[in-house]
Amino acid sequence: MANPSLDKDMFFRRIKRLYAAWKDGEVGTDDSFSKMDCLLSAVGTDFDEDEDRVYSKSTALQ
């Protein structure tokens, strides 16, 4: 199986667009995205490489 990878710059560009659409959405329209109270993006770590790090911000939501 191939190792998954993440393009950090592309992730931040996309999450900024997602955040802007959420914050700037028009409340009067039928846009359920703008009616949300919060936006959550869960991220993980590769524990195979860093087995000593048990506690991290990335896993705090789990």
From TrEMBL:
Signal peptide: none annotated. Residues 6-62 form the FACT complex subunit SPT16 N-terminal lobe domain. This is FACT complex subunit spt16-like. The lineage of its organism: Eukaryota, Metazoa, Ecdysozoa, Arthropoda, Hexapoda. It comes from the Eukaryota. InterPro entries: Creatin/AminoP/Spt16_N, FACT-SPT16_Nlobe. It comes from Temnothorax curvispinosus.
